[in-house]
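Hi P.,

Sorry for the delay on this. The queue was packed all week, but I finally got your sequence through. Input first:
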Amino acid sequence: MKKMKTITQMLPRLAFARSLRNRIVCDGLLILAFAHLLVLFTACEREPLLHLYDAQSAEMELPIVDLDLQVYWNYEMEFDVDYDWEAEWYYGWDKNDSLLWGPIGYTKPEVFKVRRYFTGDVPYAPHTAVIRSTVQGNHFQGAYDWGFWDILVWNEIQSTEGVQSIVIDEESSLDSVMAYTNQTMHASRYQAPRFTRAFYSPEPLFAAYDQAEEINRNLEGFDYDSERNVYTKKLNMKLVPITYIYLTQIILRHNYGRVESIDGNANLSGMARSTNVNTGRAGSDAITVYYNVRMKKDQPLIPYKNRKTSAVKASNRATPENVDIIGGRLLSFGMCHNASNLISRASEVDDPYRHYMDVTMQFNNGMDSTFVFDVTNQVRSHYKGGVITVYLDMDTIPIPTRKGGSGFNAVVQEPDSLTYEFNM
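Then the structure:
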């Protein structure tokens, strides 16, 4: 009887618990139904992405590099006179020249080598590791850690002959990349210490180097790209040539068939064998640079810049003198010890070597002789490349009497003023 009383007493509590449970279930069903309705009403809308940055996805962009292929020739010389190479160049550049040696000037690079060096929180610190990339075109993106970066860019080497002359050395030291040129089988001459053979002309080489570029967490210097939802930073890096074009020409006046041909080989001595790609400063080893030349006969002595208009204006001026011209094109790392892109005047050139140009000529009696010209002054004044010109009045040149003679030595003071020393 006592037990039944206890159960009866518990019935109101059980009823209350059952009611509470049913209420909770009903409330849960209402909440679930409300959630489904909320989804139905908001399914067609999407909240915009928050513009938050992540250190692992921060991006930096190299700039679009526009190479002005003519700016190379328009540099200031002594006395702030603009140098007009086309006014001094008489040899021209025809289709055969282009087929043999390529274009007369620079061509725009299309593939680049990018080297990134992370120095942590210390700017200008030694390089301990490198990230290597090859880029097609002039645009590059990559992920960067927070801190300081050094960035080096140079163009992939393109050889006209299919055999690359430049050797890139980036293994000796991570702090700098060196570029060298290979030796030929031709004997070296004139101011080429330590070497017994001449060296090939290097291919066109462009480079840019930027140090201590900071990637900071406060995003100073960054721009937000809403289309990609990333923060970007653009670098103002400008590629400049660190190989220099020299156009050489020997103008034979009054030749009248005395010199019939040439062997096609020429040399320019006292130039640098290597350069530092980071700084553009040439190495200390002087070499003789080997290159090819052609002889064009009975050419009008008209500047290259006037060739297209010469036919129209021929009736309005005197008939130009016709001459035979031996011409060619070579590239070089420049003069030893010099960073030519940092020089603004010829007086700033620090050149320890003299520069000799030699060409072997075949005369109409079957004899040949090697002509050697001291062109030091012209090379130094054209510290970023340019036209090297020698004028020879063949009426004053004796015909050699023995094959392979020691040659004619012309000491060139100025293009229009020559001092001759005969040794035939």
